[in-house]
Amino acid sequence: MEQPRARTGGRWLLRSLASRLVLVSVVFIAVPILIYQQFRAADEDKQTLLLQSAQQQGQLIARALEPLLAKADASLLPRLGEELSRFADENTRLKLLLRPKAVPGAQGFYYVGAAPQAPNVNLDIERQRLLEQGILARLADTCSGNQPLAIRLQTATGALEVLTSITPINSPFGCWAVVTSHSTPTYLGSSIGQPYWQTPEVQAAALIYLGMAALVLLLFLGVWSNLRRFGSLARQIGNHEGGRPSFAEQNTVPELRSVAEDFDRLVDTLRSSADNLRRAAEDNAHAFKTPIAVIRQSLEPLKRIIPGNDGRGPRAIVMIDRSLDRLDGLVSFARRMEEAAADLLEPPRRKVDMSELLEDMLSGYAGLLAERHLHLRLLITPHVVVRAGEDLLETVVENIVENAISFSPPDASIQVRLARSGAMAVLTVEDEGPGVDPAHIERIFERYFSQRESNDAAEHRTMDATGTDGGSSIVPFDQPVQPAGTGDSLHFGIGLWIVRRNIEAIGGKVIARNRETGGLLIRVDLPMAH
């Protein structure tokens, strides 16, 4: 039993909307992370190529300026801007740093030329960034080694540029450094000098992806919340709360409108069918019982007219009387079956104080218990409130208790216990009767099954020639059997079947087992009201 249950749970998990929502969320989180890693690796390769190209460009410009700077002196400084302008353009900018021989350390570097011309404030900002990152400190030690840069700067005017390389040139006058920077879209649109996620492409893609993910998740959540409202409404309908709520009124998803309307029609059909069954049961019972009463009244004059010494006449009257009793029992049985079917279509689920109901009902059995010399023990926990219907519970208690009474020998005890067990209320009825044949214990809740014996039953079987002899039998619909020792009611083997059907209709369960000390125990689990 465990393996099928586990497989069922696995299928439920795979088909669950909540599980799929979690799966979609995981996919929406994992996919961008994987794609981001791949794109970032590709961008790093692109960034390396760009920086290598800029570094080579800086080396070429430095080699072109090296002959001039090798013999430079202070008189050359005013003309350096003109020399740099030969290699610069509107997108490629050149700046020249100088640290005289007599000035040690990184603080000795100052800008002495720029092409195109740049405001001093921009040059100061750039020099400060080079100092902060230790680039000038490394140049001050050796004045050698071409260093690729990846520094993104914002000028005083708000324009952006990317420092791409710094190439040192050692001369007798001091240490020169040619700084190249670019402001083309190729460099500014790349991730050079900034995290990859800050690039316009990634941010635009992230916005589109987040919007798409939000739409999908909102769609899932909208359907899920609508289904949860449907579930809550179904519970209200089952519990007969809030008048006559409508699925269509609770629906917020246009695509589910037809489904909601179908649910409303189904609920209305079930309610109408239950009402029609109850009316039909009452009408049919009235229609049959009226002629039965007429026939019974008509027999009274016949009983007085037919002489007692005529053996066949009185015997015929007795057979008619018994047949009328059976017919009256069949009519009552049919009515109970139809009412039971109506309750199955629309089981009542109201709050009922089971403790009070039990005490009230069991007090009515005092006379019958005294007549049978039986003792009733009550162990009832107070204020146990269940969700069911009073009529339904009365039928359950009546059938179980009367079953225990009918099988109990004189001077025996019947124990009725009511207690709480988690979210369920547990009702147990124990008797000291003969119990049930273990081979039939699973069948006592079947329809028409009975273990009763009686002489009257044997007589019925002899007259009808349709039954089977023995202590255990399936009682045919048209063949009632009277319990031994009583002549007050007819039994059709449906009492415990109605108990199980009613209990399961309200979400409970019922089981039976033989007691070790003899007798039968019937346990009923009922959902408690919250």
Structural description of this entry:
The strands form four sheets. Strands 2-1-5-4-3 form a five-stranded antiparallel sheet. The radius of gyration is 48 Å and the shape is rod-shaped. The chain is an alpha+beta fold and 530 residues long. The chain has helices at 2-15, 17-70, 80-85, 120-132, 135-142, 185-188, 200-238, 247-250, 257-305, 312-345, 354-363, 366-372, 390-407, 455-464, 495-505, and strands at residues 92-100, 110-115, 147-154, 160-171, 174-182, 350-353, 375-380, 385-388, 413-421, 424-430, 449-450, 473-474, 509-514, 520-527. The chain folds into three domains: 47-198, Beta-Lactamase, CATH 3.30.450; 236-346; 348-447 and 494-527, Histidine kinase-like ATPase, C-terminal domain (Heat Shock Protein 90, 2-Layer Sandwich).
Short key terms for the protein model shown above:
single chain; histidine kinase; EC 2.7.13.3; 3 domains; Heat Shock Protein 90; ATP-binding; rod-shaped; 17% strand; alpha+beta; 14 strands; 530 residues; transferase; 5-stranded antiparallel sheet; disordered N terminus; membrane; 5-stranded mixed sheet; Beta-Lactamase
Helices and strands, with pairings:
Elements: H1 2-15, H2 17-70, H3 80-85, E1 92-100, E2 110-115, H4 120-132, H5 135-142, E3 147-154, E4 160-171, E5 174-182, H6 185-188, H7 200-238, H8 247-250, H9 257-305, H10 312-345, E6 350-353, H11 354-363, H12 366-372, E7 375-380, E8 385-388, H13 390-407, E9 413-421, E10 424-430, E11 449-450, H14 455-464, E12 473-474, H15 495-505, E13 509-514, E14 520-527
Parallel strand pairs: 7-9
Antiparallel strand pairs: 1-2, 1-5, 3-4, 4-5, 6-8, 9-10, 10-14, 11-12, 13-14
Keywords: ATP-binding, Kinase, Membrane, Nucleotide-binding, Transferase, Transmembrane, Transmembrane helix
Catalytic activity: ATP + protein L-histidine = ADP + protein N-phospho-L-histidine
Protein name: histidine kinase
